[in-house]
Structures are given as C-alpha cells and as structure tokens.
Amino acid sequence: MFIVGLTGGIASGKSTVAERFTRLGIPVIDADALARDVVEPGQPALDQLIQTFGTDMLTPDGRLDRERLREHVFAKPEQRRALDRIMHPAIGRAMQQALQAAQGPYVILMVPLLVETGQHRLVNRVLVVDVPESVQVRRLMGRDSCDETQAKAILGAQASRDQRLAAAHDIINNEGEPATLDAAVDSLHRAYLEMATDPHARERRWQLP
Questions:
Q1: Among residues 47, 26, 29, which one has the least CA distance to residue 38?
Q2: 20 and 96 belong to one structural domain
Q3: Between vectors from CA 117 to CA 23 and to CA 96, what angle results, nearest 5°?
Q4: In the chain, how many domains are there?
Q5: Domain edge (last residue) among 78, 101, 124
Q6: Does residue 86 carry a pLDDT above 90?
Q7: Given pLDDT bands bounded at 50, 70 and 90, which one contains residue 199?
Q8: What is the rounded distance in angstroms from the CA atom of residue 141 to the CA atom of residue 184?
Q9: What residues bind ATP, as annotated (predicted)?
Q10: Binding residues for ATP
C-alpha cells in the first residue's frame, strides 16, 4: 500500500484537504479519530490513563474527560511524556490495523503530529498543508475562542513550520479560495495514482498552488 502522510500545523486546514481526498474515493485514516477510539470505555489505554492520572480525569458517565486531561498535562512536561507513553503505542496499533484494512490505490494517513512523533519515516510520502503562522493564530482564535497568547502557546507546543516543511515531499498552500484548493488536491491525486505504481514518479516534489 502506498501511504501518504498528511500533516500540517493546527488550524492549517488538514481536515479540509482530507475531505477532498475522501470525495475522490481515497481512504483517509484519521489519527485523531483513532485517538478517541482507543480511550473508549473498556479499552486498555483508558485503564492505563486512569491508573496514571486518576479517576478525576473521567466524566460522570465513565468516559475520558479529554479537555481536563489536556489542561492537566499542558504545562507539565513529565505528565505529557507519561501521556505520550500510553497514547502513542495504542494509536500506533490502531493505525496499523486500519492501514491493513484500507482498500484503494493509495491511502491518506492524517497525523497532526506526524513530524513530532517521527512517524513521517513510516510513510512513502509526506504532504504538508501549510499556512503562515499569523494565519494559524487568526484561525485558532476564531475557532477556539482563545486569545492571541493562548493561540501562540498552542503553536509553540508543535513542531515549527520550518521543521514540517523540511520533512515534506509535497506542500499545499491553504491560504487561497476553495476552488484553488480543489485544483491542488486534484493535481496531487493524479500524481499519487501514478506514484503508487511507478517508483520513478516519486522523484518529483510538488508545491501547490
């Protein structure tokens, strides 16, 4: 299976790009969705989280209070590392199962922290959805109703824009109009169809629009 790792900074438009590929009939595996699945009641990862962080991290109906857990670990590096030690293997196993079940000429693996976790080494191609940090901050403030300081702190917890771009094979600039984005995804879709069967086609790097 030819795997394209889709990533980008927060509020860059990864989900919008993924939706375009889905419309073209390409399976998209969403690591964030898998992260929610592996902490459902009865899952081993949830039991590990309770043992590590306590039952205070549960909602009254026994589900993980994701927002409370985020707040708990956000400014505590040791606690964040403990969370990663539980979540990353669980998500990795779920990801492998989803990849094995995927049907299509190629598959999109959407991982927000693809570069940060080193998972970019596990895919055939890295596609980065890119916008300037000022655009990320503005979108994040509008989307999450946070102030500029909070938005910049969230960005600071991720890989830098330069780090993502350095790992990219292909780049979509997502500042433009929806029609421009549609055209960019269509171009990459045709390229990935070719790359899936012809390794020589993988030598080209794409930057769109």
A1: 47
A2: no
A3: 55
A4: 2
A5: 101
A6: yes
A7: very high
A8: 27
A9: 11-16
A10: 11-16
